[in-house]
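Need a sequence for this fold. Nothing fancy.
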């Protein structure tokens, strides 16, 4: 396979054109829940489709379909065979996924590509045996970039966050909101714009990409961030196991080179690319502002992360995993990237 997963809109556009050139024996259905313009749909899934076509000489292709289920319903949708591939946000299913909170912890240094590769390696080494994704084939693990606080009100310090009503996606972001004294509400990402526009929430914790992907530059014009981010959201790309098993031996072997760490890395690169686009949207709108935590607040935040990390390590350790070793492993892998 030549140069796997070139990032960029040009590559995505090329892949769309290439789909028509193949007469695929198998066309997989990708269920997606974010807008078509979101980087997962405009960049990552077209690149994945192109990579699958290249690896199988055109025998396996895919197409994206929208509206097949809500974001929290995606895992069961794949489990039931209503679609072949999707991406899930682990925080939408509290209690179902515990080990994935390890990659969401604050304190890691590195971009989404490094975090996504580390997440895959940690999953493969420590967590796959837990069976949290039982029934489906995990194609990749990925994270978005460092999470920030987006709001219409100007946030100048950590103390300003206490008492706010924040949309939090679940997972570690919920723990972070509680530690900061905020009241958390859970709303899937596609509903964030209307939640903020209706003043049902004062702000949202999401990565910088949301400034553009979910038009937060219109309804959350101020962004406050701490070094390394408040958290990172954990996702997986999953496939119906029967769909994979029913492919030919040759195609399964070929696709094994596309999936796993390669797909995790490509997905992380896409998240980094759309974070850059989100920052551009912030800078292009003169009424939008970015506030970096002061040195004093950065120190205060670092101290606050200790109990958060201890709590999650205890939760994951209770599953029978050496979570302390996993935490150290993730740090090492991200540093190596």
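Here you go.
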């Amino acid at each position: 396979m030549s140069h796997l997963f070139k990032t960029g809109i040009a590559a995505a556009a090329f892949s769309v054109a290439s789909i028509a050139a193949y007469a695929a024996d198998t066309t997989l259905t990708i269920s997606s829940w974010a807008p078509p313009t979101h980087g997962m749909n405009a960049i990552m899934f077209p690149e994945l489709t192109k990579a699958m076509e290249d690896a199988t000489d055109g025998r396996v292709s895919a197409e994206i379909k929208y509206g097949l289920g809500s974001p929290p319903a995606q895992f069961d949708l794949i489990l039931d065979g209503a679609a072949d591939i999707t991406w899930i946000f682990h925080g939408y299913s509290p209690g179902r996924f515990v080990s994935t909170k390890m990659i969401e912890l604050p304190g890691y240094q590195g971009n989404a590509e490094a975090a996504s590769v580390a997440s895959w390696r940690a999953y493969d080494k420590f967590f796959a045996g837990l069976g949290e994704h039982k029934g489906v084939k995990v194609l990749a693990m990925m994270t978005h970039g460092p999470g920030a606080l987006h709001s219409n009100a100007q946030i100048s310090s950590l103390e300003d966050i206490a008492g706010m009503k924040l949309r939090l996606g679940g997972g570690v972001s919920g723990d972070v909101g509680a530690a900061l004294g905020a009241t958390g509400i859970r709303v899937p990402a596609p509903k964030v714009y209307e939640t903020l526009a209706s003043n049902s929430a004062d702000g949202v914790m999401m990565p910088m990409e949301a400034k553009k992907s979910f038009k937060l530059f219109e309804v959350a014009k101020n962004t406050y961030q701490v070094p390394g981010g408040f958290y990172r959201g954990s996702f997986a790309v999953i496939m119906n196991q029967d769909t994979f098993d029913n492919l030919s031996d040759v195609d399964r072997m070929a696709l094994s080179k596309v999936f796993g760490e390669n797909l995790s890395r490509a997905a992380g690169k896409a998240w980094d690319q759309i974070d850059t686009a989100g920052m551009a949207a912030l800078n292009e709108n003169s009424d939008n502002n970015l506030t970096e935590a002061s040195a004093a607040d950065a120190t205060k935040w670092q101290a606050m992360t200790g109990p958060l990390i201890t709590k999650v390590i205890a939760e994951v350790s209770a599953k029978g995993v050496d979570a302390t070793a996993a935490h150290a492993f993730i740090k090492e892998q991200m540093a190596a990237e």
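For context: The CA atoms of residues 97 and 131 lie 9 Å apart.
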